[in-house]
Design goal:
- The structure is a single chain.
- The chain is an alpha+beta fold and about 280 residues long.
- Strands 1, 2, 3, 4, 5, 6, 7, 8, 9 and 10 form a 10-stranded antiparallel beta sheet that branches.
- A hairpin with a 7-residue loop joins strand 4 and strand 5.
- The longest helix has 19 residues.
- It is globular.
- The termini are close together.
- The C terminus is likely disordered.
């Protein structure tokens, strides 16, 4: 960290303060999570021994590595390798101007990660929507309406996260079905609500904070700049919008996550940050 601060002509304290202000993370946490993500990829994509992975990713021994790994991923490195699913991988930040979001959006994209979501079912109110890349997008009008309809039907279930499911099997340029709802254990036995069972798969997750009307700008940057250089290929399947309980689409600031189903073509962390 001292070396990074020196390269920028700043004291360590100044560098940490600026980094935290711009990213929402301390530099120490960012480096630690990036090292652990690289280690997780090495567990999945190589057959290297645990001690070799630990040393390659900046840990002094396999005991220290295993302890930090379990704190971050919730399981031991051996279990993570056996499971074979890339999840909770934090991607490195890029300073290349072509890969950065526009200046006005950077504070609204605090992080991107690779994660896995098991199969689950969502029940709610469905409607047809013209999406971000269609000739006549209308999602800014229709999505708040669908969420209001769902809340009026399901007002008693206000403590569960809200989940928007975008059926993009027909491609991102087409009109698609949007389901505004919440997770359920089994499809509802009523004609009032529709349901979709989302199969388990890998996702790239965008953590977003800001007015919902600016989310389309973030997604355009993601698909046009970030994704082509990521090592991932987006799939035409179900995109997900995960909102906290008590969603108010018209609120000035909304915190949510946008989940995009992907196929991992090459290791993301090692490819983009081989020296982390």
């Amino acid at each position: 960290m001292t070396a990074l601060a020196k390269r920028c002509g700043l004291s360590r304290w100044q560098f940490n303060r600026i980094f935290a202000h711009q990213t929402g993370l301390s530099l120490g946490r960012y480096v630690r999570e990036l090292r652990l993500s690289q280690a997780a990829e090495m567990l999945l994509f190589t057959k290297q021994r645990m001690i070799d992975i630990a040393l390659a990713c900046g840990f002094s021994c396999d005991i220290s590595f295993s302890r930090s790994f379990k704190q971050h991923f919730g399981c031991a490195p051996v279990k993570y390798r056996q499971r074979g699913l890339p999840c909770l991988l934090k991607t490195p930040m890029s300073c290349h101007p072509d890969l950065l979001p526009p200046e006005s959006l950077r504070s609204r994209v605090p992080g991107i990660r690779l994660d896995f979501q098991p199969t689950f079912t969502v029940a709610g109110v469905a409607g047809q929507v013209n999406g971000l890349f269609s000739a006549c997008p209308d999602f800014n009008d229709k999505l708040p309406r669908l969420w209001r309809d769902f809340s009026s039907i399901n007002s008693a279930d206000a403590d569960h996260p809200r989940i928007g499911v975008l059926d993009l099997a027909g491609g991102s340029n087409a009109s698609f079905t949007y389901l505004a709802g919440t997770e359920v254990q089994e499809p509802p036995a009523t004609d009032t609500l529709s349901s979709i069972t989302v199969p388990g798969r890998n996702y790239v997750v965008i953590a977003f904070h800001g007015p919902l009307v600016s989310l389309p700008d973030v997604l355009k940057w993601f698909f046009q700049a970030w994704l082509p250089n990521s090592g991932c290929e987006a799939l035409h399947a179900y995109d997900l919008e995960i909102y906290p309980p008590g969603l108010t689409p018209s609120a000035p600031q909304v915190s949510m996550e946008y989940w995009i189903p992907v196929k991992l073509c090459r290791p993301m962390i090692s490819w983009n940050a081989p020296n982390c």
